[in-house]
Structure formats: C-alpha cells, structure tokens
Design a protein that fits this description.
GO cellular component, one term: membrane
Strand content: 5-15%
Order of helices and strands: HHHHHHHHHHEHEHH
Strand order of the largest sheet: 1-2
Distance between the termini: 44 Å
Shape: elongated
Radius of gyration: 43 Å
Number of domains: 2
Number of strands: 2
Subcellular location: Membrane
Main location: membrane
Largest sheet: 2 strands, antiparallel
Organism: Anhinga anhinga (Anhinga)
Membrane topology: Multi-pass membrane protein
C-alpha cells in the first residue's frame, strides 16, 4: 500500500512500471466515481437514465485524463474524499434526505388526505340522497292529514274548503346535486394533484441546485486549501508531524515540542482543541434543527394515516338513522266554532263529531354505502424512516469527524508535496525556537 501511494502521489512516474500502475489506479478510481456519479444523478437528483449516462461517460473520461496527467488535480481530487466528511458533505447528505422525504412521504400524506375527502364526499352524497328520498314521507303525511281535515269540516254548512290537502312541492332533481358534488370533488382532486406536483418540482429543482453548488464548492474548497498550503507557510501549520520531530531531534531541541504541547496537536491523535469542540457543538445544534423538521414531516405522515384509518373504520360502523314523523290531531265532540258567534244565531250548525287523527311515519337515513369508491389509507413506509435515520446518524458522525477530515487533507497535501512539507516544518521549528528564546 505504501508503494502504491508513493506512485500515486509522485509528480512524475519514475519508469514505465510506475506509469502503468498510476494509469490503473486512476482508471479504477474513475470507474468507481463514474458509477457513483451516475447513481447520484439518476437516483438522488431524479434525472432520466439516458441523460445520466450521457453525463457520466464524458465526466468519467475527463476525470481519467485529469487524474493521470495533472499532479495537483490528483491531489485536489484525493482531498475531496475526506472533505465529504465536512460541512459540504453534510449539505449533500442533507439534500438527499430532503429528496427522500419529499418523494416518498409527501405523496403518502396527500393520498391519506384524499381518502378522508373521499369519505366526506361519500357521506354527503348518501345523506343528501337519503334526505331527498325522505321528503316523499312529508308528501304522504300531508295528503293523509288533508283527508282527515276534510272529513272533520264536512258537516259544517257554512264553510266548505275547496281542497283540504296541503300543496306540497318537492324538488326531486337529485341529478343536479350529484353533478355539483362530483364537480366539487374533481376540483379538489385537481387542486391536490397540482399542489403535489408543485411541491415535488420545487424540491427537485432546489435539491439539484443545492447538490450542484455543493459539489462545485467541494472542488473549490479542496483547491483553496491546496493553494493556501502551497503559498502560506503559516496556514494550518500547528501540528507535530514526523518531519518536525526528526528536525527537533537533529537540532537537539526535543524540549520545544514538549513545552508547546498545549498549542500544538498531533495529526494522528484524537485530541480536539476547545475551538474545535465548540464548532462541533454548534454544527450539531444546526443539524438537530433540520432533524426536528424532518420528524415533523414524518409525524404528519403517521397522523394523516391514523386519521384516515380511523375515519374509514368509523364510517364502516355507521348505522342507519331512523326518522319518525308523528302527527296527532284531536277535535272533541263539544267543540264549538268560536269565530263570528253572531252568525251562529242566524244559521243552524251541527256540533263537530269526535275526530282523532294520530299516525306515525317512519323513514331511515343512510350516511354510507358499499358503492362508494374509497381508496384504502396508505400506511407509512418504515424503510424510508430507517434510511433517513441512518443518513442522520452519518450526518452526526461527520460533525465530530470534520476536524479529523481537515487533518487528513493536510496529510494528503504533505504526501503529494514532500519538499514543501519540509519547508513548513522548518518554518514551524524556527517559530517555536523564537518563542522559546523570548520566554
């Protein structure tokens, strides 16, 4: 492995064997990165497969030529790998989580809301139909009650009603009502579909922009680090490296490294400075906010399913509601007509006979029907929650591994440019010597 890394990090291969070894290493890296690039575009960013292939093949060929021919580009490409464990890598993983949630959870929420709306539509349709049919009960009751009234006043000589029946008008054109309800349901369905498409498209475009910007920034950050490493001796130069230890031993000044242990860090150690710990805590808090927003969406998915499932089960248990219309009409035998009493002296009248009209009319209201087309509620997909949870575990791990990723970037740059690493070690040694003399 040391020999392979030496060939990979050399500016120019020493012989033909190293040349072919370098080409093989670059080819293997290109194949792996090209496959990941295709999967990223097709699965995560949701581009079409032919466009993903059309982008992945030229990208792979260009990457192969760049890695094989340009030594600094090879260093930048190698530093991109640990840089994925930094803030920019977290942005890529976070955008992937958002895309997974939007593509898999949001349609499920909308589907369960549609189920609830279908149930409401079914109840409204059946209840209105049952109510319209029950109005025929009023027509029958009014007709029979009118017959009873005519029989009651038949013996009166001074008054004859033209018709004792109520004029009952029934609007029984239920087709118009059903048509309006159907149009309203179709409109609600189109509105929900438009919202779903808008949300998906907006998140897809936003995710692509964030992902593209993050990838460009990854390359820029690695290039910026290498540029500062090669031009500024003070940049990221506070590590006790092997070259610095060898230099201190040769100069018989090993005590400089022991006395400066508080300001210097070993790149292979696990020690974190106070500033690095505070930065990790701040990044973890920001990541927790994003996790809470994701949990809100997941909770909405479970809540929508529970509501839809409960409504479907309760509607199936709806019983028929009986409606009873009671009419009681009673005229006693001794009743006298109290209007216009002076006319009664002029015209004889017969006392009204005992008349009793009491009857009940029964009807049933139906709120649900087996003919309603109701799609069953869709339960949440546990695999989506599992994948998002695993990605967030990786995100939290990258928060605390970011410091070590920066150290690894420095080690990679030092192995690619060993002569410059020696200059940096000499600069740090002189700085420590000057500080020791001042003290």
């Amino acid at each position: 492995m040391a020999d392979l890394w030496s060939v990979y990090s050399k500016p120019v291969p020493a012989n033909g064997r190293e040349l072919w070894t370098l080409f093989l290493q670059c080819s293997c890296s290109t194949v792996v990165i090209g496959g990941l690039f295709y999967n990223w575009m097709f699965a995560s960013l949701e581009y079409s497969w032919h466009l993903s292939i059309a982008m992945a093949i030229p990208f792979s060929l260009l990457l192969l030529l760049t890695l094989f021919m340009v030594h600094p580009a090879r260093c930048v490409f190698t530093m991109i790998m640990p840089t994925l464990g930094t803030k920019q890598g977290r942005k890529l993983l976070l955008s992937t989580c958002i895309m997974i949630v939007v593509v898999n959870i949001t349609p499920n929420i909308i589907s369960n809301i549609k189920t609830i709306l279908q149930i409401i539509k079914c109840i409204c349709k059946n209840s209105s139909e049952s109510l319209l049919n029950s109005t025929a009960l009023l027509e029958t009751a009014s007709w029979q009650f009118g017959d009873a009234i005519q029989e009651t006043v038949h013996s009166i000589n001074i008054y004859r009603p033209m018709n004792g029946h109520f004029q009952f008008s029934l609007f029984n054109n239920s087709t118009l009502i059903y048509q309006q309800m159907h149009l309203a349901g179709e409109k609600i369905g189109r509105d929900f579909l438009a919202v779903e498409v808008l949300v998906k498209d907006s998140v897809r475009v936003g995710n692509r922009l964030v992902a593209g910007f993050s990838m460009l920034y990854l390359c820029f950050e690695s290039t910026w680090y290498l540029k500062n490493y090669l031009t500024n001796l003070r940049f990221d130069n506070f590590y006790i490296t092997k070259k610095l230890e060898h230099l201190a031993v040769d100069k018989k000044a090993a005590h400089l490294l022991v006395g400066s242990s508080k300001s210097l860090i070993r790149p292979t150690g696990l020690k974190l400075s106070r500033g690095e710990v505070m930065l990790c805590l701040v990044q973890a808090m920001l990541l927790t906010v994003a996790l809470m927003l994701m949990l809100v969406v997941v909770a909405m998915d479970h809540f929508a399913f529970k509501v839809a499932d409960t409504v479907v089960r309760k509607v199936a248990q709806f019983s028929v509601v009986p409606v009873t219309l009671n009419i009681k009409y009673n005229v006693s035998a001794g009743a006298k007509i109290g209007i216009l009493p002076f006319l009664l002296r002029l015209f004889p009248y017969n006392e009204l006979p005992l008349q009793v009209f009491e009857k009940s009319y029964n009807r049933s209201l139906i709120f649900s029907s087996a003919h309603c087309r109701i799609s069953p509620p869709t339960p949440p997909n546990p695999s989506v929650v599992l994948v998002v949870g695993l990605l967030f575990c990786i995100l939290y791990a990258t928060v605390f591994l970011e410091t070590y990723a920066h150290r690894l970037c420095r080690k990679i740059a030092g192995s690619f440019f060993e002569s410059w690493e020696e200059k940096r070690a000499h600069y740090l040694y002189k700085k420590l010597s000057r500080k020791h003399k001042e003290e």
